[in-house]
Amino acid sequence: MTKKSANSIDLVLDVAGRDYKLRTAPQHQSGLTEAAQQLNEKITAVRQRGRNLSNEQAAVLAALELSYDLLIEREMLAQQLEMSKR
């Protein structure tokens, strides 16, 4: 659900069954929606590992995993860029 204004939109994202409202530029809507979907998938994966976690704990662990994945990707990109300079 979105509400449009001049240079921004109000966006509602569902994360772990809870709605989060934020205002963003229209061009960010698609990326933020995809990010919320990816986070929900990661939360589901964390829960399926058999741990009895609260919504907050599962969300934090999922966010930590996604952040770690991002760091690894950045390191790999930096290495590739360094190798291409040689």
Account of the 3D structure:
With 86 residues, the chain is an alpha+beta fold. The protein has one domain (2-85). The chain is 59% helix and 20% strand. It has helices at 29-48, 55-85; strands at residues 2-4, 9-15, 18-24. A three-stranded antiparallel sheet has the order 1-2-3, with helices on one face.
Summarize the structure.
This protein is of the alpha+beta class and 86 residues long.
Please give a handful of descriptors for the protein shown:
alpha+beta; flat; single chain; 86 residues; three-stranded antiparallel beta sheet
Structural class: alpha+beta
Average of per-residue pLDDT values: 92
Runs in which pLDDT lies below 50 for 5 or more consecutive residues are none
Q: How would you spell out the order of helices and strands?
A: EEEHH
> How do the strands of the widest beta sheet line up side by side?
1-2-3
**CA-based shape:** flat
How far do the termini sit from each other?
Answer: 49 Å
State the helicity in percent bands. Answer: 55-70%
**Total number of domains:** 1
| Secondary structure tally, helices | 2
Please count the beta strands (DSSP E, at least 2 residues each): 3
Radius of gyration: 17 Å
What percentage of amino acids are in beta strands? 15-25%
Largest sheet report:
3 strands, antiparallel
